[in-house]
User: What shape does this take?
Amino acid sequence: MLKYIRNEWMKLWAKKSTWTMLVLTILLAVVPAIVMKYTEDNEKDWRTVVQEDTNMYKSMLAEEGLAASDAAYFNEQIALNEYRLAEDVPLAVTTTFDSYLSYGVGLIIIVTIFSVVVAAGIVSSEFSTGTIKMLLTRPVSRTKILLSKLLTVILFGLLLYAVCLAGSSIIALILWGTDISHDLQMVDGVIKEVDTWGVIFEKFILSFGDFFMSIFFAFMLGSIFRSSSLAIGLTLVISMMGALIITLMSKYSFAKYVWISHSDLTQHASGGTPYLEGVTLPFSLTVLAVYAILFVLSSFIIFNKRDVTA
Assistant: This one.
């Protein structure tokens, strides 16, 4: 299997578009940091900023007709600000190492788009160029051929994501050092510091939901319909309009059984709110696992039954 993956890997990197995606990934991870560093205001004193925010919230509380929820929020922010000043917990008024790394984690959206492009074309391009005939006449099972292509796409996406995180980390370390932000939160009336690295790690893990499901879906469409444009277009439309689609389906009970409602696992992050009431992380993972199996099996079954001369 490794030699087939290696063969697909070499074919993938023989394309200029692959190198273009890699370069764009590096630029997106590095350039924004440089822009932020030399455009943000570094002269602000965090204590002054916190006091100004506190005064603003107090003035808002003095307004008539204030909703109870708004009043509760303003009082909580005032309490957090006063705690920060009293305990000398600095507020990050400029970009910090962890905040930019969090941006790097968020770049998985771009990585997913690039991976979808590769997943949609890695099979369909064989048909459009006619090389599929030569590929399938080799003494190799079609299952191994298709599996090697799917694994190559996943490895490519993971490589781009690793480049994103490495690039973001290195440039952030160079420009801002190891300083991190110290966010506060109130839990059951008790103020405590947010676990910065825990939040970033949680976001990192949960971000893989849409990554894998988009790859599997685009790979299935590209394998079945032999059209990369259809696979790319449909996958990206569903991904980008997912929130709207979920909103439209939310009044129907079947909505919680549709994979689109669960692919964005960040809805289950700490402090987050699931798109559909009553949906838990284990349930979302179960639904995604079922659809992932269906997408992959559909790709393999139809590809194995297809005529070589097609």
